[in-house]
Amino acid sequence: MPTTRRQFLNLAGGVTVAGTIPVVTLRPLQATPAMLNAAIRNIVGEAQLRTGRVKLDIPPLVENGNTVPMTVSVASPMTADDYVKSIHVFNEKNPQPNIGNFYFNPSSGRAQVSTRIRLADTQKVVAIARLSDGTFWQVAAEIVVTLAACTEELN
């Protein structure tokens, strides 16, 4: 059965309208402890996480979660044979569990990152350092936030 010009235009217009409808993907408004663990395992794989060598300087109580100062440093000589390859920072309740990834080499001089982060709520922040020998070191801190950031409210 031949298609008329009117039927063709109706079909083409329907496809065009369908193409302009946004695709909505649903995800939790905040990360969960399971998402935190999955994000960490994505970085470290099956390697053992050791405690120590990493220092996380972040206030334990913050009034406003929009700008939380944070410094992560790792005790390392930063020589060609022994240096920090990367630092990864994770959180427990923000919309995304991975706050940031920072990469180093022996020429970096020191393994330290200072920045400001946003925290959606009272939560745990975890910093993990990957050393050149393939080991992973971690530190965690519980941060109390009185005024949350990163919140998305649906009406």
TrEMBL record:
<dbReference type="InterPro" id="IPR030997">
    <property type="entry name" value="SoxY_para_1"/>
</dbReference>
<dbReference type="InterPro" id="IPR032711">
    <property type="entry name" value="SoxY"/>
</dbReference>
<protein>
    <submittedName>
        <fullName>SoxY-related AACIE arm protein</fullName>
    </submittedName>
</protein>
<dbReference type="Pfam" id="PF13501">
    <property type="entry name" value="SoxY"/>
</dbReference>
<dbReference type="InterPro" id="IPR016568">
    <property type="entry name" value="Sulphur_oxidation_SoxY"/>
</dbReference>
<dbReference type="InterPro" id="IPR038162">
    <property type="entry name" value="SoxY_sf"/>
</dbReference>
<feature type="domain" description="Ig-like SoxY">
    <location>
        <begin position="42"/>
        <end position="150"/>
    </location>
</feature>
<dbReference type="InterPro" id="IPR006311">
    <property type="entry name" value="TAT_signal"/>
</dbReference>
